[in-house]
Design a protein that fits this description.
Blueprint lengths: L2 H6 L1 H13 L6 H18 L6 H19 L3 H19 L6 H12 L2 H13 L3 H31 L1 H16 L10 H18 L10 H4 L13 H4 L3 H36 L6 H29 L11 H32 L3 H26 L3 H19 L4 H11 L8 H7 L5 H6 L1 H6 L8 H18 L8 H18 L1
Helix pairs in contact: 2-3, 2-10, 3-4, 3-5, 4-5, 5-6, 5-17, 6-10, 7-8, 7-10, 8-9, 13-15, 14-15, 14-16, 15-16, 16-17
């Protein structure tokens, strides 16, 4: 079969590959294989039209993240891979796109066009004459709107009328009984699985018929252009300069006052949060970190919004705005200090209770905030547009998300919490229940430490929880083939094999 024919059949081949590697499996080696197939197919399909640098970067990011799914097998890496593949598909199909947000939305929208495209491709495949193809296309177009409206009103009535919902549920259960595993080789679960497979594979590989953001990207620019307002001669000399001058005065006055206010807050934080932190009760510390962190982060974004508003237009070109820019730089630096203060609050919480997913998330979020503040200063200094700010921040977010998949957070959290000298007892329930099975071998090795920190719980609490976690892992692994292979599961299995050998010796 020629390469062109294979490309034309890329979606059916992709669905078959997905079924063979994912049905009854978890994400692992199959994820890397399928990602390589998607990326390779997209490159082959679009190489003649040209592939943009953004498409190649996100394609590399997708393959890298798929490798991290095998190496770390975290839920984070799985979701980042999906986001990255959506961005890759958008960039591949539209080489004029540069903004990550545009490419992601373009692919997401294409998912909903998959049923239409599937029907079009089937009808045009069987309709050999050009006239028949046109007729089929018109009939499909006319049929899509009624079907969509029918489904929409069905869900509205389903949500509004409990009796209607109950009767239709019985009907669907009756239909589903014909596809049950006991009476047929095709289960209802399999039908749903293959439907979602078609949506995902088709949405990524099929080039959308209708383009969104047509011409939008070309209108976007990084550099601000001075807008000269055309006014009547009698008004031009009175309104425009005075309004801009007044706005400049208001901006200077506001940022001076905000700088003074924030300076007082930062001095207090440096004194009482950075260097002289006093022990607090668990309730006070929780309020200090959770509510205080949320308010401070909100204030930082409000500060950024203020500067974006003032430097949105012609104030960037005002002849005497050096003072305003200097004040803005001080304001940005003070907000960066506030970011570090939020980080110190989070550090104190970790010092008391250890690591957790949300506490790590706060650190990542603060890193992105610092990048946003730096880019905000570049926008002000170099007279850049709001698009520049959104565009660069989106790429920063994408980069940080991909890099964050390099870490096995479950084992990192477990190792830190078991070994760090925290001021409170280890949260045993969190490590046993909330953290995934990747830390299983660590928990078995540290069973004595967990027993010491179980607190008021019953004597066999740790032993029972470990037994449940271990046997659930072993039972699940029996149902998987080599397609589900990943390093964390392999490490756990190797540990238990060695444990059995030691017991038998």
């Amino acid at each position: 079969m020629k390469l062109k024919s294979l490309i034309n059949w890329s979606v059916p081949i992709g669905c078959a590959l997905f079924h063979c590697t994912f049905w009854g499996e978890k994400m692992g080696l199959n994820t890397l294989v399928f990602t390589l197939y998607l990326v390779g197919t997209l490159i082959l399909k679009n190489k003649e039209e040209g592939i943009s640098a953004a498409a190649m970067v996100t394609a590399f990011g997708s393959v890298l993240t798929a490798i991290m799914v095998v190496v770390n097998n975290s839920m984070l890496s799985e979701w980042v891979l999906i986001l990255s593949m959506f961005a890759t598909a958008g960039f591949m199909h539209r080489k004029d796109l540069e903004f990550v947000g545009f490419s992601f939305v373009a692919t997401f929208r294409n998912l909903f066009a998959v049923p239409y495209q599937a029907i079009v491709k089937l009808t045009t495949f069987f309709a050999r004459k050009e006239e028949d193809k046109k007729k089929a296309g018109k009939l499909i177009t006319l049929g899509v709107a009624p079907v969509v409206l029918f489904v929409l009103f069905y869900w509205l009535y389903y949500l509004a009328n409990p009796k209607f919902a109950d009767i239709t549920d019985q009907y669907w259960r009756f239909i589903g009984s014909f596809f049950s595993a006991g009476t047929s080789t095709i289960s209802f679960k399999w039908v749903v699985f293959m439907t979602l497979t078609l949506f995902m594979t088709g949405g990524i590989l099929w080039k959308p018929g209708r383009q969104i953001f047509e011409g939008t990207q070309s209108m976007m620019t990084d550099d601000l252009v001075r807008k000269r307002k055309k006014l009547l001669p009698i008004l031009a000399s009175k309104i425009t300069p005075m309004s801009l001058k007044n706005e400049h005065q208001v901006a200077v006055l506001l940022i001076v006052s905000l700088n003074a206010l924030l300076l007082f807050v930062n001095v207090l934080d440096v004194r009482y949060v950075w260097f002289n932190f006093q022990p607090l009760s668990s309730a006070e510390l929780s309020n200090f970190v959770h509510e205080g962190t949320f308010v401070l982060i909100f204030s930082i974004f409000m500060a950024m919004a203020v500067l974006v508003y003032f430097f949105r237009d012609n104030l960037n070109f005002f002849f005497n705005n050096k003072t305003l820019k200097l004040l803005s730089l001080v304001w940005i630096c003070q907000n960066a200090m506030l970011v570090f203060s939020v980080g110190m609050r989070n550090f104190h919480y970790i010092n008391y209770y250890g690591l957790a997913y949300k506490r790590i998330g706060v650190v990542v979020f603060l890193l992105l905030t610092l990048i946003g503040l730096l880019l905000l200063w570049v926008k002000i200094r170099d007279r850049k547009t709001l698009y520049f700010l959104c565009h660069r921040n989106a790429w920063a977010l994408y980069t940080v998300l991909v890099l964050s998949t390099f870490f096995n957070w479950d084992t990192l959290i477990t190792r830190y919490n078991l070994t760090a000298d925290t001021k409170e007892n280890i949260d045993v329930f969190f490590l046993l229940k909330a953290v995934s099975d990747k830390n299983l071998y660590q928990l078995v090795e540290a069973q004595s430490i967990l027993e010491e920190n179980k607190g008021h719980r019953h004597e066999n609490f740790v032993r029972n929880m470990l037994f449940t976690k271990e046997h659930r892992f072993i039972y699940q692994q029996k149902n998987y083939s080599f397609w589900s292979w990943n390093l964390p599961d392999h490490r756990n299995k190797q540990y238990f094999r060695q444990l059995v050998k030691k017991e038998n010796q």
